[in-house]
From TrEMBL:
Keywords recorded for this protein, A-Z: GTP-binding, Nucleotide-binding
Presence of the UniProt keyword Nucleotide-binding in the record: yes
This protein's record includes keyword Nucleotide-binding: yes
Region (Disordered): 143-170
Originating species: Sapajus apella
InterPro entries: P-loop_NTPase, Rab_GTPases_membrane_traffic, Small_GTP-bd, Small_GTPase
Listed Polar residues bias regions: 143-158
PANTHER family listed in its UniProt record: DRAB11-RELATED
UniProt xrefs under PROSITE patterns: RAB, RAS
Name by which UniProt lists this protein: Ras-related protein Rab-2B
GO MF: GTP binding; GTPase activity
Family note: Belongs to the small GTPase superfamily. Rab family.
């Protein structure tokens, strides 16, 4: 669950690790998804080279409004980098995706990737691009609660640690 503008948003995560054996199952997940994280390993060019195929699959089997974030993972392994950050940024720009680099090992930008995707989904809800009364689009409205916390770390927490695209962590 993440909180955005005082609303609780539940995220479900399906990790197929890019394995072809999961492709037919993954297609059914896309049908009910409001968002997807498309992840490649910055140290393995072949994972980047397969992005087009996975993106085509996602777009073919999902709503045209589905939010897709492209994530270059393993940013902690800069010395083993095989895919330049600029290549990931260019791919994302070309295909209308949100882009971020993360490190699952150090947790750098991991939470932010989920939050940024959820924020974009919420923005599309506000624009009326998702019908919140139709659970087929992957959005289920739960009980309304008064929530006093906001998304992500407080200003003091943000100032005390490096996060985001402009930081040196990724």
């Amino acid at each position: 669950m993440v909180n955005i503008d005082g609303k609780q948003i539940k995220l479900q995560i399906w990790d197929t690790a890019g394995q072809e054996s999961f492709r037919s199952i993954t297609r059914s997940y896309y049908r009910g998804a409001a968002g997807a994280l498309l992840v490649y390993d910055i140290t393995r060019r072949e994972t980047f080279n397969h992005l087009t195929s996975w993106l085509e699959d996602a777009r073919q089997h999902s709503s045209s409004n589905m939010v897709i974030m492209l994530i270059g993972n393993k940013s902690d392994l800069e010395s083993r980098r095989d895919v330049k950050r600029e290549e990931g940024e260019a791919f994302a720009r070309e295909h209308g995706l949100i882009f971020m680099e993360t490190s699952a090992k150090t947790a750098c930008n991991v939470e932010e990737a989920f939050i940024n995707t959820a924020k974009e989904i919420y923005r599309k809800i506000q624009q009326g691009l998702f019908d919140v009364h139709n659970e087929a689009n992957g959005i289920k409205i739960g009980p309304q609660q008064s929530i006093s916390t906001s998304v992500g770390p407080s200003a003091s927490q943000r100032n005390s640690r490096d996060i985001g695209a402009n930081s040196g962590c990724c």
